[in-house]
Design a protein that fits this description.
With 479 residues, this protein is α+β, with helices and mostly antiparallel strands. It has three domains: 97 residues, no CATH class; 205 residues, Sulfite Oxidase, Chain A, domain 2; 127 residues, Immunoglobulin-like (Sandwich). It contains eight helices and 26 strands. The strands form seven sheets. The protein has a five-stranded mixed β-sheet with strand order 7-6-15-10-11. The structure holds ligand MTE and molybdenum atom. The site of molybdenum atom has 6 residues, from loops.
């Protein structure tokens, strides 16, 4: 039995739309989920299912009777996930959450799909592509339904290389620990996504597109009565490079990664890249509780306003903003008006991928490799320390360069001397911002990266502190 909240399915109407309400449209689109789909979903939910909120403590276990089945959703056993994603360590099976096992799986520019982390708040919806549509509403000429085949055939196809990283990656290094999936380094991976430019889709459908507006992007995965997974993406970013992706490295998306279509927000934390997209709404504001233009606005705000905020120990529930002026997460840390930053653009980070922790190497093996990225800001520099971060020397970027949204591989020729060494990499972004050495304690109440410390925060987001690797160098006997 795990941590789900009970839920009451309630029909609802949207005052704004004539005829069929978004809720009805949603439900009718859900009919393909199975004859008894919606009702059965509700009754199963009232019983027991695994809902792993960002706040909740993860469990890697199944109930004794195995996972509960819910019509219209795929419910996973751990064994099934392990088989399909052999490169992942399973964190929970219901819903599926898993991270890359070892840092040295990141030695190529792209991460194979079976080693690419899964972060889901609900089980994966089973969506037949041929019947799937995306509804477009809000500040548009008229509400429209866009079928998948139109998305694929009538709009351009663009590619974008992007390093997807969960905002909670590195959470497990916080002391004291915080609740939530205990990601180490591996809630991340890089791929080339292909799909339709969201800006083009909006333009074709007569949407208002001023930079100051927001596009609310909603996923089809929340069971009835649960908080819809929805994110507000600023229109300026939508127009710049956001993609409704249907392919990842030339293959169709897997069910767990958002099939048939997900948003990709290049260079921003993974939470923004909404999976299983089924609804887009052009709005003047971010999703927030008091939005009178929307029916049941508070069903759409949890993942936008409560989760994915950097909240120090000293603060309560974060303040809901309707608009903010910067989407660079680190810049928000220094913005007193925002107070609890939203997880949008990724902060600069890097780590060593080989050699791996605890290994014994010879001086001849002294090549150090790693990955570095800085969200859409881009990188300026990568350095390496072999003395645990006391002194640093420049390393060099290698491998493909596909724009700032994707990581760079790096290498360092290490003239290794026998003994114990602690390797640490440090990346600097194009604005000169660099990784801090450690994470602060909660008592310090930090709100920004300061004194070489990352601010400890209640939900463990954004940790970009050094990630040391201890290795032993020995001289081999056979010379
Ligand atoms: N609809 C929906 N989209 C979602 C999520 C989700 O639970 N539901 N999780 C988000 C989070 S927190 C992350 S980090 C990424 C993970 O993408 P992946 O599972 O494909 O790696 O998807 C994002 N998109
Ligand atoms: Mo995430």
């Amino acid at each position: 039995m795990s941590n789900t909240s009970g839920s009451t399915p309630e029909g609802s109407t949207d005052a704004e739309s004539a005829g069929e309400s978004p809720r009805e449209r949603y439900l009718s689109r859900r009919r393909y989920l199975g004859a008894a789909g919606v009702a059965a979903t509700a009754s199963v939910l009232a019983g027991c299912s695994g809902l792993l909120g960002e706040e909740s403590t993860p469990t890697a276990t199944e109930t004794e009777t195995g996972p509960e089945e819910r019509p219209g959703y795929h419910t996973y056993s751990t064994a099934e996930l392990e088989e399909k994603y052999s490169g992942l360590k399973i964190v929970s099976n219901q819903p599926p959450n898993a991270e890359t096992w070892s840092r040295n799986q990141y030695t190529e520019f792209t991460t194979s799909v079976d080693a690419t982390y899964i972060r889901s708040h609900y089980d994966s919806p089973e969506i037949p592509e041929a019947e799937h549509t995306i509804s477009l509403e809000g500040m548009v000429e008229g509400p429209t339904e866009i079928p998948m085949d139109a998305l694929k055939s009538e709009l351009s196809t663009v590619e974008v290389a992007h390093t997807m990283q969960c905002a909670g990656n590195g959470r497990s290094y916080f002391e004291p620990s915080v609740a939530g999936a205990q990601w180490t380094f591996g809630a991340m991976g890089t791929a080339v996504y292909a799909g339709a430019p969201v800006g083009e889709l909006l333009e074709r459908n007569g949407a208002e597109m001023d930079d100051e507006l927001y596009l609310a992007v909603m996923g089809a995965d929340a069971p009835d009565g649960e908080d819809v997974f929805a994110r507000s993406i600023p229109m300026s970013k939508i127009k710049k490079d956001c993609v409704l992706a249907y392919e990842r490295d030339g293959e169709q998306l897997t069910a767990e990664h958002g099939f048939p279509v997900r948003l990709v927000v290049p260079g921003w934390y993974g939470c923004n890249s909404v999976k299983w997209v089924d609804r887009l709404r052009v709005m003047e504001t971010m999703l927030h509780d008091e939005d009178e233009s929307m029916d049941e606005p508070d069903r759409y705000t949890h993942w936008q306003q409560s989760s994915y905020r950097i909240v120090p120990e000293q603060d309560d529930e974060p303040r809901q903003h309707t608009t903010i002026g910067t989407f660079d997460t680190q810049a928000q840390m220094n913005d007193e008006e925002i107070e609890q930053p939203y997880m949008y653009g990724m902060v600069v980070k890097s780590f060593v991928t080989s050699p791996v922790e605890g290994t014994t190497i010879t001086p001849e093996d002294g090549e150090v490799r790693g990955v570095a990225w800085a969200g859409e800001t881009g990188l300026q520099r990568i350095e390496l320390s072999t003395d645990g971060g006391e002194t640093f020397t420049d390393a060099e970027f290698t491998g493909p360069e596909h724009g700032p949204a994707a990581w760079r591989l790096f290498r360092f020729d290490w003239d290794a001397t026998p003994g114990e060494h602690t390797l640490v990499s440090r990346a600097t972004d194009a604005e000169g911002r660099t990784q801090p050495a450690t994470v602060s304690s909660p008592e310090e109440g930090l709100r920004q990266i300061q004194d070489d410390k990352y601010p400890w925060n209640r939900k463990g987001y954004g940790n970009n502190a050094y990630m040391p690797v201890a290795v032993t160098v020995t001289v081999s006997d056979d010379g």
